[in-house]
Amino acid sequence: xxxxxxxxxxxxxxxxxxxxxxxxxxxxxxxxxxxxxxxxxxxxxxxxxxxxxxxxxxxxxxxxxxxxxxx
Length: 71
Prior knowledge:
By secondary structure, the chain is an alpha+beta fold. It has two helices and five strands, in the order H-E-E-E-E-E-H.
């Protein structure tokens, strides 16, 4: 599990947007890129080339779940 202190300082390497913790992933709050970064052995893999781009509907649900704006 990622500690809150670490989550508070991490950001999306592409857009510098905040991230939310969703299971074993960190999800960018940037609507345009919607990147999802995996966490392996409690270590975030923050490589753009290894991230996933979420569908808008999936990203929107995650943002709503975490109280983030989707517009």
